[in-house]
Amino acid sequence: MCRWLAYTGEPLQPSTLILDPQHSVVAMSLNSPLGAEPVNGDGFGFGWYSDGASPGAPPSLFRSIEPAWNDQNLREIAQAVRSPLFFTHVRAAAGPPIQQTNCHPFRHERWLFMHNGAISRFGLIKRDLVLAVDPALYPTIQGTTDSEVLFHLALTFGLTDDPVAAVGEAIRLVESAGHGAGVQFPMQGTIAVSDGTTLWAFRYSSQGRSRSLFHSTDIPTLRGMYPDAERLSAFGDHAQVVVSEPLNDLPGAFVEVGESTVAVLDGSGYHHRPFLAA
């Protein structure tokens, strides 16, 4: 499948998380111990909200079909910009072709979306799902992935007003269509969504065996646990990271997000809520 990272907090050079850690996202693209596939070399994407941008301004995107570990442009951009909120994603293609429009994250106006997982037997139910997309949104589907269709279903169901309810309704439609076609476990994945201010991170699968997902412990607590860890000085007190796998081996630095849970990250910290729990 894939691996991803989302950051929100004080403006930061993205390379601090994308490139520098012991087990960075770029390192995960070569070796992902907790992933369904150990190598994620079928392209990558980087989406960021610029520091100082006007409220409501759309994020910027850089996507490539190159392996993340081999792309100098990613290194240049990640070291040149500063961002208070960014997404990065490395892809292991599960069927749809390797092309830029199939690389995550996906963007619509001020929203970013990325997904690790799959809609099982997507081709069998694709027509039903695509026909459920708002006709006004359909022309903005550029690629061929199940993830982009899922994003557009969430937009159709009111993502911009209530992200948790909209993603839930989109997944329930996937499950209904899948079950109608004889697919036992239609939905698998972890999902990140943001409007540039708040970050929503979902962990859910029809089988109850979702892809791994973790978030960082708050920085003041980590500084108290590890007063001599110089690496923590790069982060402000409100820095928050959600990631497919821990970025380092510091005990207690990352907390696993539970099954059927959405973690909401905003200026006040993390808030966990049940999501489509049975």
What would your notes on this structure say?
The protein is an alpha+beta fold. It has one domain (2-274): Glutamine Phosphoribosylpyrophosphate, subunit 1, domain 1, CATH 3.60.20. The chain has 7 helices and 13 strands. The chain has helices spanning 15-18, 25-30, 72-80, 122-131, 146-156, 163-180, 219-225; strands spanning 2-12, 44-49, 60-64, 83-91, 106-108, 111-119, 187-194, 199-205, 214-216, 240-243, 254-256, 261-266, 269-274. The strands form 2 sheets. It has a 7-stranded antiparallel sheet with strand order 3-2-4-1-10-9-11. The protein has a 6-stranded antiparallel sheet with strand order 5-6-7-8-12-13. A hairpin with a 2-residue loop joins strand 5 and strand 6. It is globular. The chain starts with a strand and ends with a strand. This is Class II glutamine amidotransferase. InterPro entries: EgtC-like, Gamma-glu_amide_hydrolase, GATase_2_dom, Ntn_hydrolases_N. Keywords: Glutamine amidotransferase.
